[in-house]
Design a protein that fits this description.
The structure is a homodimer.
Chain A (H helix, E strand, L loop, with lengths): L10 E11 L4 E7 L9 E2 L1 E4 L6 H13 L5 E8 L10 E9 L7 H5 L4 E4 L10 H16 L13 E2 H12 L5 H10 L3 E8 L7 E6 L1 H7 L15
Parallel strand pairs in A: 1-6
Antiparallel strand pairs in A: 1-2, 1-4, 2-3, 2-7, 5-6, 8-10, 9-10
Chain A binds a DNA duplex (27 and 27 nucleotides) through α5.
DNA sequence: TCAAAAGTGTTGTATATACACCCATGA
DNA sequence: TCATGGGTGTATATACAACACTTTTGA
């Protein structure tokens, strides 16, 4: 008997939900699709899984192609596998979501793809099931960031507590008490206070902090209970 | 231009990590693989994604084939996609984990597959990367059950608080204070006390409880903080 | 009557929340 | 000097963990 005979083989793709934070709003990076079907429509950046790579490697490659970045936070969301999701041919797609420091993002690369950042409440209609992928990624982000110190991935190396708070408030679309917020953040003992201040956004200036990378990695799995009643915002 | 030309198509499979609880231990359902390669070795139950179904539907079909059950808890873990994970031909596999009531499981069906239940610390060497899939599933179970009322899926319709505690203790391989445990469980207000008692395992007998299904569904997303310092056990 | 498991209550500790004022600085 | 945002402290309520005794009943 010949194994695996007479079985359908599928195209397997990865699609990346790339999120960034511009200091005020969470944003999603989209491209104008360069080929048929659905050419010139807004789309997630994606690519096909190649013979020599696994799906995570594909996602890293695709991410680097568009942003120039590697070593960033990247996590598999889930498979999107409805038989007719692409009208041209069946494609199973693995959605990955990535959190990047928007300042590191290299603009020139994405010119090739006519890429643009969109605020989350202004996302256009995307091809296929890409809007579902985005929704799913936002949910996952909120879920995970409520429990793990994930959002630091969206900030530059040096950041202030007020910047961090704005980020959390953007993700959960709510506001936090700044006294309780900073106490909670600092009690994690993940942050190292710097000598210098950020002076753009206020006269007094806010101290910069850096992540203590060692503690960040060892404590990442610890549950934070960071967002009170987080499920209300999922 | 012909879209999607010259791209590799892959076999796409689903593999199911099926977990049950026999009243004392967590157990994993394995089969003896019936075809080459690796014929007669222990394996997860799996199957190929068919042209007319998405991957979740495949997993449901595969699960029903082996256990006779449908409507049980089933969740996608992640893709396993290393190019050489199957020596015969490249197969991308989506791992799903399932929680079933072991009493509902229909033994005769799985005779066809020479299926057996294994305690978690006695799992044999499995084909391909199936041992990794199992490890990954256990981690996910511990993670999720620490936050959501998930383990009820492993119990029969009527169960006692002591039975529930044994289950939690099996999953986390630790012991809990029974006074704090029952108070915490009952404070969820998910359980409805029954009039009758379970008298097999003690002279006094323990009251049966049933899940309040309405509250179960609406509160599933609420975070429990059920396991103190859960990350220590992940 | 006694062994074995079920069931229940209290108290101290830690954690989270709510809330108001002073500080530093550039305009 | 004043308006703006940064930074801090305290009192209260809530949640959690530790802990011991009584109840039931079959053998």
């Amino acid at each position: 008997m010949v194994p695996y005979k007479d079985l359908e083989r599928l195209l397997v793709a990865v699609d990346c939900i790339i999120l960034g934070f511009d200091g005020a709003k969470l944003k999603l990076l989209l491209i104008k699709r360069g080929f048929e079907p659905e050419k010139n429509k807004w789309s997630l950046m994606g690519g096909f899984v190649q013979p020599n790579e696994n799906s995570l490697e594909s996602a890293k490659r695709v991410l680097k192609q568009l942003t120039g970045l590697s070593g960033v936070y990247l996590e598999e969301l889930r498979a999107f596998s409805n038989p007719d999701r692409d009208p041209e041919e069946r494609i199973l797609s693995l959605a990955y979501f990535a959190l990047i420091d928007i300042n590191q993002y290299q603009k020139q690369l994405s010119n090739d793809y006519q890429a643009e950042w969109f605020e989350l409440d202004q996302i256009p209609t995307l091809i296929f099931d890409h809007n579902d992928m985005v929704k799913s990624a936002i949910r996952r982000l909120r879920y995970k960031a409520a429990l793990h110190p994930l959002l630091f991935e969206l900030l530059p190396e040096k950041f202030t507590i007020p910047q961090l708070q704005i980020l959390y408030e953007a993700v959960y679309d709510t506001i936090f008490d700044k006294r309780n917020f900073s106490r909670k953040v600092l009690s994690l003992e993940l942050l190292v206070k710097q000598k210098d201040k950020e002076k753009e956004s206020s006269k007094k200036g806010a101290y910069f902090y850096k992540l203590d990378l060692t503690k960040y990695e060892t404590n990442f799995q610890a549950f934070l209970n960071f967002i009170p009643n987080a499920h209300l915002y999922l």
